[in-house]
Amino acid sequence: MYKIVEKKVLSETVKMMNIKAPLVAKKAQAGQFIILRIDESGERIPLTIADYDRKQGTITIIFLEVGKTTKQLGTLNVGDSLLNFAGPLGAPSEIKNYGTVVCIGGGVGIAPLYPIVKELKKIGNHVISILGARNKKLLLLEKEIEEFSDEFYITTDDGSKGRKGFVSEVLQKLIDEKREIDMVMAIGPVIMMKVVANVTRPYKIKTLVSLNPIMVDGTGMCGGCRVSVGDEIKFACVDGPEFDGHLVDFDNLMLRNRRFLCEEEKACKCTEV
Questions:
Q1: Closest Cα partner for 93 from 15, 214, 228, 183?
Q2: Cα–Cα distance between 163 and 166 in angstroms, integer?
Q3: What is the architecture of the domain spanning 100-256?
Q4: What's the pLDDT tens digit per position in 146-168?
């Protein structure tokens, strides 16, 4: 059993939890994820590692209550336990000194961006961070990410904080200013990552995205998380979750992510009843 040792309500539908998982924390690296199961009757869901503390033996997860399992997870409190907590899974981010790196996070994608920003800065990169959300209430980890950023920008769809607009517009502005950018990392909604990749493609700027396809076993056997990358089929759980954004078939990914939408809606309605 994996005990919840801390819980924070970041917004009405976004929660943060620290989970006691010493063996996972011992090996965790930026960019990796875990798969958890709440109880015997629960489904297995993947969540990217938002942070880890090797000394305390904890893993931080941040999640949006969007489906049956995440809503159930959000009802748990400090002292409650999870049945399964497997990880770290996936390939870690390639942390090296690229030079100038633009790190872009949208919505709950800001959470997994944090450890990447932190590690990139620690080894000497010039880090430019751009965070975006629908409104200021949905922004996450602003102070934490700003601490490890040389330049820091915020955008909101409604203009309630920072620049009104989208993260891609700030990125385009930096490019138009002839800023030398060696790499872009984008994590967030699929459509956001697609737009970011389209912005950088004409300039041949290396662009990595962290994908979030439907996942079942997390070991590459079920095939549920397959994604089209260039002329190849990849499995996000073992080959990713990070891929070359210029090669990802985002339209196919968006279709696949809607495969079980009806089933999810039915499950939520049954839970409400």
A1: 183
A2: 8
A3: 3-Layer(aba) Sandwich (3.40)
A4: 999 999 999 999 999 999 999 99
Domain ranges for the chain: 2-89, 100-256
| Distance of alpha carbon 98 from alpha carbon 81, whole angstroms | 40
CATH architecture designation of domain 2-89: Beta Barrel (2.40)
Per the CB < 8 A criterion, the answer to whether 211 and 256 are in contact is no
For residue 11, name the pLDDT band (cuts at 50, 70, 90): confident
Q: What is the DSSP-derived secondary structure letter of residue 93?
A: P
Q: Which residue has the tokens 């009104």?
A: 164
Distance CA(238)–CA(14), nearest Å, equals 27
Cis peptide before 88 (omega within 30 of 0): yes
pLDDT digits 0-9 by tens, 88-102 = 998 899 899 999 999
pLDDT tops 70 at residue 269: no
Q: How far apart are CA 160 and CA 175, in angstroms?
A: 25
Q: What long-range pairs does 262-265 form, CB within 8 A, spacing at least 24?
A: 264/67, 264/68
How many degrees, rounded to 5, is the angle at CA 181 between CA 177 and CA 187?
A: 110
Q: Taking the complete model, does pTM exceed 0.85, yes or no?
A: yes
